[in-house]
Write the structure tokens for this entry.
Amino acid sequence: MNELEVLNKHVSDILECRIEATLLEMERTALCEVPENDTMTPKEFLKLTEQTCARAFETLKNQSLKVEASVDELINTLKAQLTWDESLKVGLNEEHYPCKNPEGKHKTRCQECLCCSFYNTLNTFSQRNTESLIKCE
Ligand SMILES: [Zn+2]
């Protein structure tokens, strides 16, 4: 494998095995268990649901942090490859990835520059993370 293939594989692994897989797991987290014996009183059912939710909350919190960490690693892996043009790196070390060529007065983002690409990628995963939390059953 050449260097690019190695990078490609590494990035795909982070994306598929860690980010996507974890997001899917999160979406499938059950927040409510249907009791197996139907002799359960409403009060008992409520208690069971509270316990299930408390457990799910811990799991989801950890999975969510895991996704964030994996996205960071993905971003840093990509950043580490940007050796071919130092001028491109300017802005990428700033927290909000300021746009290189903002269009007009009120637009702060374009769809093309590298800073905006990183910003949009981070934003996309952040939204996916939130969606996965909302989608829990
Ligand atoms: Zn831009």
